[in-house]
Amino acid sequence: MKKVILILLLAPALAFAQKPVKPNLNKVLNFWKDGKLKEAKEMIDLAETDPKLSLDGKTYYYKGLVYASLDTTSNPAFQSLAQEPLKTAVAAFTKADELGKGKGYFIQDASGFPVMKEQQILVLADYYLRKGASAYQEEDFTAAVADFKKTQAVLPADTTAYFYAGYAYYQNEEYAQAIEEFKGYLNNGGASADAYSLIINTYGGALENKEEALAWAGKAKAKYPTNTEFPKQEIGLLIDLNKIDDAKSGLESAVAKEPNNKVLHFYLGYVNSKLEKWEEAKGNYNAALKLDPDYFDAQYYLAQIYLIDAEKVKKDMNNLGISKEDQKKKLELDQLLVQKYKAALPYWEKANAMKIEDNNSRIEVLDKLSIMYYYLGEDAKAAAVEKKLKELGVDNN
Fold first, then answer.
1. Taking the model in full, what pTM does it have?
2. Are 63 and 92 in contact (CB under 8 A)?
3. CA nearest 185: which of 213, 209, 151, 210?
4. 188 burial class (0-12, 13-18, 19+ CB within 10 angstroms)?
5. What is the pLDDT of residues 117-143, one digit of tens each?
6. Helix (H, G, I), strand (E, B) or coil at 50
């Protein structure tokens, strides 16, 4: 009998324990504030299934807060509660805005002051941005990209996250992705000219697409008409693409605007050399050297021009036969070659006296001097040059 009474007494308690839990948004918020993310998640998931609460924008606002916390928590016990919690949080915030129809959402902090959803979104985005920046400093570029992409997910119009993601992708040698991030930066209203420079340099360098680089150089030049670098980049690309006439026209305009720019004079000389307008090219290189007497590239290309006639004479000599007429002609050409080498020699000697950063350029200058010294009978100078070439690992014997 006692057992029957006990069972009867327990029955109401068992029935009460099995009663479905009723969703409550206040409980969600309190769980969340107390750091009880498991309980907060269970309650908000339940609230979303409720016919009434599923139509309330506040439900999704709270869901966004809970799932954002699941994504940012350092507690391993909470990290496994949801798959892609940030994606869920962003979708929830979006739905909250749709249901709210302009209504502002907020919670009260410990002091009772309201904290608007917009403020919380900014704090969340800044969290990922800082986290990504730290990963970048540690050279963990994959992690950096992941965090910068999260910043974009939270604040789709944020330009900084696109710019940083572009840098991280570039450092990770994911060049196509880097380009897309820099384009995203510009499409969202980014105003830094550096984005254009990075796109141009990436297309023209790592991606080896100089045509696309040229197109972007044109866009950049139009966007920033007072920027002096984009016209130079455009000119360099035109030269690389053998669009010489277009390059010359642009260079002449650039030189007129910047007459004291040695690089522009040099490029114009390079273009005129390509067009075989040797005297004009000499004038351009000399103009560059007048601005900077230690400008090696200008001196080197100027010296090259003076060897062109010598190479032609040498080729004509090599094509002669063994007849008396050919031998007579050979003597005449030999004298002419001596004259040409004597005319070119000072320019190569001056180039050799300059600071040469590139080892291959140093070897080429010495090699040219060796040939000229030998032909002109300057045996001691030829021997000194050969010694230097050997020191550089070149043996012409």
1. 0.72
2. yes
3. 151
4. middle
5. 999 999 999 999 999 999 999 999 999
6. coil
